[in-house]
Design brief:
The complex is a heterodimer of chains A (about 230) and B (about 100).
Chain A (H helix, E strand, L loop, with lengths): L5 E5 L4 H12 L3 E6 L10 E5 L5 H15 L4 E4 L14 H29 L2 E8 L1 H4 L5 H21 L4 E8 L12 H9 L9 H12 L10 E3 L4
Parallel strand pairs in A: 1-2, 1-4, 2-3, 4-5, 5-6, 6-7
Chain B lengths: L3 H17 L24 H19 L8 H5 L8 H15 L5
Classes of the chains: A alpha/beta (about 230), B mainly alpha (about 100).
Amino acid sequence: MTDERVILVTGARKGVGKALALHYAREGARVVGLSRTEPDWTDERVEHLLGDVSKEDDVVRAISHVKARYGRLDVALNNAGIASMNHALLMPGRTAQRIVDTNFMGTYLVCREAARVMMRRKFGRIVNFSTVAVPLGLEGELAYAASKSAVESLTRILAKEVATYGITVNAVGLTPTDTDLIKNVPKEKIDGILRRLAIGRLGTIEDALWAVDFFISGNSGYITGQTLYLGGP
Amino acid sequence: MPSQTLVNEIAQLALKNLDAEGIKTPEGKGPDTIRLIGADAVCDSTSLVAFLVGLEDQVNEQFGTQIVLLDDRAMSQKHSPFRSVASVAEFTATLVEEARGGAS
C-alpha cells in the first residue's frame, strides 16, 4: 500500500476536474483521473483511467484498479457531470436520461465503490458536485437541476450511512464557472443567473478548489452531509 | 447447487471475516446456527454491511470472480440469504459457481 494520499477525480480531462487533479498532484497526492476520453495532458503524479461513470462495470473496474494498485483511496471527487439547457417541454427524453445517468447514477456508483474501499481504513472524504441551479430553481435547467438535487439528497443520506466508517460526504454547489459546461449557454442567461447571486460574478476554478480543500481537510471530520453553495444563491 | 466443498470453504472465509470485523460469535456454534440478522444476530446493521463488503471482496480476490452479494436475487428471496453464516455461504457459493460458468 502506498503511503501517499490517493485521490480519485472523475471528469478529470478538462475544466474543474483537470484543475482539481493537477492541484492535488502538486500537493503530493497520487491522483487517479477517470474520464470517458483520453485527456490531452499528462502529469507524472496523475494516472488516467478511461471509463464512463454512468456505467457500473466501468466504475467497478476503475475502483478495483485503484484498490489493487494503491491499496487505498482517501478522497473521491465526483466532478463528472453534463448539462443541457432546454425548456422542459422541448427536452428530448434521451437527453434528460443521459443527464440523470451521468450526474446522479455516476455520482452514486462512484460513491458506493469508493466508500467500500475507504471503509477498510475507516477514513474517507467524498465530495460531490451540485449547482446553484438547485436553490435558484432555474428555468431551462430542469433535468440538470433535478439530477443535482438528487445528488444533494444522496449526499445527505450517504453521509449518515457511512459516518460510522469514518467517511464524510459533502457537496459543493457551483455557480456558472468559465468552463466548457457553460460554453453553449447564452450570455444573457448567465448574466441573469449572476444577478440572483449575492456575489454577482462567474465562479473561478480557485473558488471550487477552496471549497473542496475545506471538505477534504483532515480537520473536517465533523463536517458531513452538507452542500456548500458558492456565490450566495 | 454448489459443491459442499466450496460452501464449506466460503463458510470458513465468512467466519474469518466476522472475526476480522471484531464481530463476536458464540463459541461452539456452527455456521448454520450463527445468525447474522434477526433475533440473536451477532451483527448490527453497521457491522453486517462491513461483513458483507469484506466477504464479497475476499471471495472475489480468492476465486477471481466479480460477484455482487447484494444483487436483486438476494433482495427478492423469501428467506434472506444473509440470515446465517451457512445461508450466506451457500448463496455466495452459488454466485461463485455461476460466475465460473458452472451454473445449471
